[in-house]
UniProtKB/TrEMBL annotation:
GO biological process: carnosine biosynthetic process
Highest taxon in the source lineage: Eukaryota
GO terms of molecular function: ATP hydrolysis activity; carnosine synthase activity; homocarnosine synthase activity
Official protein name in the record: CRNS1 synthase
UniProt organism field: Pardalotus punctatus
């Protein structure tokens, strides 16, 4: 009621060209954590989860890396404000002690991240080349940030924003830090390399002529669809 009253008061004083923008208030999750080692009061903290997803073979979204950052709850947790850490260890520090609960949150995070990428790819598929920014323009890498929130006494992942460049920097830093302490190399370098190599191969064949001899029947229709997507000029010939 207080928010509605404040908006109404603002609207009455605005001109035609002005407007009021409202953003949702998402409270961060506050879980029971171990008692602090210091007697100093513990400030409310927030957990920001940074994810990086890429376009895999067959235009399938695939989660590449997850990195978490902890900051003050009363201000946004920004990229670069804290060193990244892993999801599982962050959830343990946050008071999520049950392994099954941490695994369930990780599964929901993967589903939400890949669903965001799938929605973006579906939207881009409906755009014209001019609207996308060019014939070969499309999104290969997407970063999605989440806040660990508490809704009706249940932990929820709330998507905050997309930021490919900052999420890529954070996840690459997390990968490098892991290697620095002896952890095995993750899937991030391989998945990013696959996405870039696939784009490079498409660029090499774009605009080329290809002659198909005996291309087959209806079961081989994917050949024509792939050729169109790669920008090939196709000529067919009988056997």
């Amino acid at each position: 009621a207080a928010v509605a009253q404040a908006v109404g008061d603002q609207l009455r004083g605005l001109t035609v060209e002005d407007s009021v923008l409202l953003e949702a208030m998402v409270p961060t999750a506050r879980l029971p954590v171990p008692p602090p080692r210091s007697p100093a009061p513990r400030l409310p903290m927030a957990l920001r989860i940074c994810t990086l997803v890429c376009r895999s073979w067959g235009d399938r979204p695939q989660l590449c890396q997850v990195a978490c950052a902890v900051g003050r709850a009363e201000s946004p947790v920004r990229h670069g404000a804290a060193l990244p850490q892993g999801l599982d260890s962050s959830l343990q520090q946050w008071g999520v002690v049950a392994p099954s609960q941490r695994q369930a949150l990780a599964t929901r995070l993967r589903e939400a991240t890949e669903a965001a990428m799938a929605a973006l790819l579906a939207t881009e598929a409906e755009l014209s080349p001019q609207q996308r920014g060019g014939t070969r323009a499309h999104t290969d890498i997407l970063g999605v940030d989440f806040l660990l929130a508490c809704v009706d006494d249940a932990l929820e992942l709330v998507a905050l924003a997309t930021s490919s460049q900052r999420c890529l920097e954070t996840c690459v830093l997390a990968e490098a830090m892991g290697r620095g302490v002896g952890e095995p190399t993750g899937d991030l370098p391989r998945l990013l390399a696959e996405a870039m190599l696939h784009r490079a191969q498409c660029h090499l064949v774009e605009g080329k002529d290809i002659l198909l001899i005996g291309a087959g029947g209806v079961s081989k229709s994917f050949v024509w669809e792939a050729a169109r997507d790669y920008g090939l000029r196709v000529r067919s010939s009988g056997r």
